Amino acid sequence: MKVPLFDMTRQYESLRDEILNVVDSVFKSGRLIMGENVKRFEEEMQNYLDVKHAIGVANGSDALYIAARSLGIKDGDFVITTAFTFFATVSCVTRNGGTPIFVDIDENTFNIDLDQVEKVLKDHPARNKIRAIIPVHLFGRTVDLERLEYIRQQYGVKILEDCAQSVGSTWQFSDGTVKKSGSVGDVSILSFFPTKNLGAHGDAGMILTNDEHLAEFCRIFRVHGAKVKYFHEMEGVNSRLDEVQAAILRVKLKRLDSFHQRRRDLAKLYNELFEKYDLTNHIVCPPLGEGFECVFHQYVVRVKHGHRDRLKSYLESRGVETAIYYPLGMHRQKCFAHLPRVELEKTDRACAEVLALPMFPELREEEVEYVVKCIKDYFEGECAC
Q: Which pLDDT value is given to residue 289?
């Protein structure tokens, strides 16, 4: 059996007629840039996430760069973030002239360790120059939003939420209030890269904020810094959400919550099968838990006792596609070698142990069962040697 890590064609088959109709409507309209679909999609995302402003841009990396720029990050500023993330989370700081301060992760969630964040805010020699924190809601699991709000108020820092993998994930506050990732940051970002839970058929991204002034900056900056065409208030960039992609994303947004539920159901099945086959001595599954709702952008396990790479090769030999997010932390990347050296033991361990298994809404139960059965076969063979 062949089991893909991700297969966009299955979703396309179920949505094909509707997607082709909306794309055809865009072409017939003759309005391909910043048209009605972009406007409507921004409004629909505002309503879905309960934020005041949603600004469509060309991709998630641009969203991060522009969002960091809107916070005024510049030469001499420091920004606390995680090294266990994609490159763009960090480059949005350095491209604006700032310096990232890497802290380690929470081993249970892979998200930034907020205890360490507070320690840096209290003890770092340049703590007065720390302008912002960039938490990443990794693999669809929300960072503690209530504590993020506390940290912002307590230490006077800005929060830039990286929600590239977490659109629609939630956190329950102590008073029972439930908020979605991206709704509490001074500014937040989304990616609509095709593999994301809400994926375009090309590149696309979005900036979110409840701050009118930050929203205005981002809207102007994304179109060459011009509020009025040909009259440039700042040196901006060209980063506009494509009208075709906005039309496609509107089709998918209507189904996003059902896609999320399907992902959670598949994650639950994975966990149950690992328990059933007595594999929990070898595999650490992601928690389902209460008080938060993960949207499982990826289903990532830890493979214990140095078996990760051999298991990955074995699964590939059995037709199961997997991936490693991430094989090398940002603190060890060559391009950031000029930054102060930092040891992040938990991040390094995660890089050596994590393995993403197939996860997308159209994945079939029998495929999940086959994946786990292959893992069972691997460990039975290893233990017999």
A: 78
DSSP 218-261: HHHHTBTTEEETTEESS---B---BHHHHHHHHHHHTTHHHHHH
Residue type, position 73, single letter:
I
Within its chain, how far is the Cα of 165 from the centroid? 2
DSSP string of 109-133?
A: T-SB-HHHHHHHHHH-TTGGGEEEE
Angle among Cα 139, 338, 160 to the nearest 5 degrees reads 35
How many helices (H) does the chain have, and how many strands (E)? 12, 15
Strands of 299-303's sheet, edge to edge?
283-284, 299-303, 354-357
Give which of 135, 191, 200 is closest to 165, Cα–Cα: 191
Which whole number is the average pLDDT over 51-66? 98
Kindly report whether the global pTM for this prediction surpasses the value 0.85. yes
Residue 243 CB contacts under 8 Å (≥ 6 apart), including other chains: 26, 31, 32, 33, 34, 35, 37, 38
- Between CA 106 and CA 92 the distance in angstroms is 23
- pLDDT category of residue 25 using cuts at 50, 70 and 90: very high
